Amino acid sequence: MTTISPVKTVKESKPKEQNSPKKSVYLTKQLNLWYGDKHALKNIDLDIKEHEVTAIIGPSGCGKSTYIKTLNRMVELVPSVKTSGEILYRERNIFDANYGVEELRTKVGMVFQKPNPFPKSIYDNVAYGPRIHGIKNKKILDEIVEKSLRGAAIWDEVKDRLNENAYSISGGQQQRICIARALAIEPDVILMDEPTSALDPISTLKIEELVQELKKDYSIIIVTHNMQQAARISDKTAFFLNGEVIEYDDTDVIFSNPSDKRTEDYISGRFG
Ligand SMILES: Nc1ncnc2c1ncn2[C@@H]1O[C@H](COP(=O)(O)OP(=O)(O)OP(=O)(O)O)[C@@H](O)[C@H]1O
């Protein structure tokens, strides 16, 4: 069988496993989701750990985006959506009636497929979330903006152009501004929906390196069509097919010794 070896171009080896077991950041139990009659997610069980990069892979239409948009309840913007089951974020069910969606979204940032900065200055893009949360003090905002841009590995490139429109920089830089904008609210989790699919290879590599850095402080869940990318940057991989999780394991295992024939067929390029 042809397999993709999990070559670590970004870092040569994974950090040593800690002695204590990692905590769950998201525990999904028997999640089902329907768009009207379309049963898009079927009995999903996934235990996603903190300070790991979890990759969601699978062919087009298998439910990857739907799943990560369920994690921050963005999917509820589609009126026909119905769900059953539970998603525990830090042990609280996000579907509980008294769980405010705004509260959840202060903990969970999201980065989309196409860089989507606001038509504002670089500074105002990053300061946007903190301002919404009531921070007005210029010195504090300056500090947050610098820290977030440094965290997104783009400070040096934009520090002299903070007042320029975010559209004036390259797509790869815009994507890092979007990551900085997500970091500015000090999230716990960052959801990434194919964040490099619109980027050139060098910008892609920068984002991949950044993801490796960010997992020290955040938990990252990334949807990707790019299996080499999943193999390079993730700790765990979930393979979705037709709305089901077929296999979820250490990335090394998924790419070198999957237990399900369908996973093997997918990663060796036989379909999808
Ligand atoms: N708003 C919607 N209304 C109805 N059906 C939808 C909606 N969004 C997605 N679907 C359907 O749900 C299924 C899962 O879609 P989803 O976008 O989650 O897949 P995906 O794995 O992310 O696909 P891709 O890799 O192409 O982005 C598909 O059959 C899709 O057509």
From TrEMBL:
<protein>
    <submittedName>
        <fullName>Phosphate import ATP-binding protein PstB 3</fullName>
    </submittedName>
</protein>
<keyword id="KW-0547">Nucleotide-binding</keyword>
<dbReference type="InterPro" id="IPR005670">
    <property type="entry name" value="PstB-like"/>
</dbReference>
<keyword id="KW-1278">Translocase</keyword>
<dbReference type="GO" id="GO:0016887">
    <property type="term" value="F:ATP hydrolysis activity"/>
</dbReference>
<dbReference type="InterPro" id="IPR003593">
    <property type="entry name" value="AAA+_ATPase"/>
</dbReference>
<dbReference type="GO" id="GO:0005524">
    <property type="term" value="F:ATP binding"/>
</dbReference>
<dbReference type="Pfam" id="PF00005">
    <property type="entry name" value="ABC_tran"/>
</dbReference>
<keyword id="KW-0472">Membrane</keyword>
<dbReference type="InterPro" id="IPR017871">
    <property type="entry name" value="ABC_transporter-like_CS"/>
</dbReference>
<feature type="region of interest" description="Disordered">
    <location>
        <begin position="1"/>
        <end position="22"/>
    </location>
</feature>
<dbReference type="InterPro" id="IPR027417">
    <property type="entry name" value="P-loop_NTPase"/>
</dbReference>
<dbReference type="GO" id="GO:0035435">
    <property type="term" value="P:phosphate ion transmembrane transport"/>
</dbReference>
<keyword id="KW-0067">ATP-binding</keyword>
<feature type="domain" description="ABC transporter">
    <location>
        <begin position="22"/>
        <end position="267"/>
    </location>
</feature>
<keyword id="KW-0813">Transport</keyword>
<keyword id="KW-1003">Cell membrane</keyword>
<keyword id="KW-0592">Phosphate transport</keyword>
<feature type="compositionally biased region" description="Basic and acidic residues">
    <location>
        <begin position="9"/>
        <end position="20"/>
    </location>
</feature>
<dbReference type="GO" id="GO:0005315">
    <property type="term" value="F:phosphate transmembrane transporter activity"/>
</dbReference>
<dbReference type="InterPro" id="IPR003439">
    <property type="entry name" value="ABC_transporter-like_ATP-bd"/>
</dbReference>
<comment type="function">
    <text>Part of the ABC transporter complex PstSACB involved in phosphate import. Responsible for energy coupling to the transport system.</text>
</comment>
<dbReference type="GO" id="GO:0005886">
    <property type="term" value="C:plasma membrane"/>
</dbReference>
